[in-house]
Amino acid sequence: MGNKTPCNKGSGEMSRRGFLAGTSSLVGAVALAGHGSAAYARTAAVPTVVQGLDNGARLPVLIVGTGYGGSVAALRLARAGVDVHMAEMGMAWDTPGPDGKIFANTTKPDHRSFWLRTRTKQPLSNFLGFPLDKDVPRYTGILDAEEFAGITVYQGRGVGGGSLVNGGMAVTPRRERFGSVLPTVDPAEMYDVYYPRANAGLGVTQVDPAWWESAACYQYARVGRKHAQRSGFPFVFVPNVYDWDYMKQEAAGTVPKSALDGEVIYGNNAGKKHMQKTYLAQAKATGRVAISPLHRVTSVTPAASGGGYTVVLEQLDTTGTVTATKTVTADRVFFAAGSVGTSKLLVRLKATGALPDLSDEVGRGWGDNGNVMCGRANHMWDATGKLQSAMPTAGIDNWDAGGAFAEVAPLPTGIETYASFYLSITKNPHRAEFTWNAATGTVDLSWQRAWKQDSIAMAKTIFDKINAKEGTIYRTDLFGTNKIWGDHLTYHPLGGAVLDRATDNHGRLHGYSGLYVIDGALIPGNATVNPFVTITALAERNIEHIIATDL
Ligand code: FAE
User: Fold this and answer.
1) Average pLDDT value for residue range 269-278
2) Is residue 529 a contact partner of residue 503, using CB atoms and an 8 Å limit?
3) Which of 250, 263, 407, 433 is an active site residue?
4) For residue 77, is it within any domain?
5) How far is the CA of 158 from the centre of ligand 1 (A)?
6) What's the domain count of the chain?
């Protein structure tokens, strides 16, 4: 397949540190440089979004949020004959900007990249000693870096939720580990019915191994495999929702590049099957699903008369200013605002008296999926490739022995970095709680930065050994200066309205009939792998039961 990156022959004579020093002047130009691209023709079909949510409307079902849980609920309810309205605080992401593209490039963040920030907050904040963040106009952009006292939680904002910004890694946990993920759910029904249903609905497939072995854009992953195997760690291929045929055409230069142009955390203009192309497209096809983007739900309380719930929504413009406040009545409300969104909303509604009878378990059991990041500096003969597909395909599984599953992640800077980069998911035991802070009128999260030390220790069971075997060192330039570990963040918030604690065993909130949680808030803090397949499968399980018994 074309675009093979030439090996940097002869460069082994240079020392690694010499290289790092020598290239530092390139960073501003290269790591921040855009990948020039011609006008882009949109290839994706997206659902028609209905803007018109009328003040005073009466709705059979309102779904708060349009990520994995919300989209599953919308499709299944609509197919069961129920009219559904979805409120989404983020944008529709169906209209190209002035550059002809819907989404911004990872190496060139702009106003579209961040949710209501005036300066970017990139997960990898530095490169070769240089800070990467820059000023951007405040806009309802796609990636929210939500800051709590001890952790920054990255989340997708827009129709499709996290599916818009994530790496597409679609991992079903090993069955023998499922008991720790969702202890009250029967593994047989999940592995026989709901995981297969979720994988099919999401369009999950595996990269063609023969192509992978020769593709220049996966040289970084092959180096990751070599190092893992030489240290005796199991290396596993991981499915993804990316369209591999499209990626092959990207590599051949016959279609506009997306994953091979580094696109991922600010959206993919092609190739990735995010929810707008899968569940939401099918939901739209029923004719029963309407979506209101830039509508943020702020209150849910029992209606004064006639049953159901009074729901208050703020309509936003793209600066985040509230332009209208609407009040509707919904017979049923599904909370699908993501682990953080749902938890914050429920904790506030309970504390402020809108839903006082919610369980005391609301807000508890939140975890970061044990996320911790690091990079390793390879020798010059182990180039990882200047062309790196932004879609990961593989991981190192040391869960049983060391409590860590490490995704071999891309570092798509457009230059040869000689770096291997990893996002580890670890068996971190700590769980935090969301609480209402009446003084500030906000919801706090009790996560402590020091708790990440457990995750670091688990990740080190893999990377200390690989470094010792390979004679290599950790990168210290990616998360600050002289800082090895990305221990300040998570991509995988889970919990806060845990299944069979804050809700019954199918997501019905205790205390109120007709209120449900159907997103990552149900999972008690750790999925042992990347979480969206489990969130989707659990939503499939719960909505089937709810449709059969409640509707
Ligand atoms: P989510 O997808 O977050 O959807 C919630 C939606 O609700 C969002 O669109 C919000 O804007 C919206 N919302 C929130 N509050 C309100 C409100 N008050 N009113 C109206 N709307 C609201 O929830 N997971 C994987 O399995 N594999 C990966 O490769 C992977 N990579 C990731 C990379 C990045 C950079 C990030 C940020 C996440 C990644 N994840 C990955 C995590 C994954 O995207 C996440 O677990 C799911 O998106 C969570 O799904 P939920 O349905 O819980």
Assistant:
1) 98
2) no
3) 407
4) yes
5) 9
6) 1
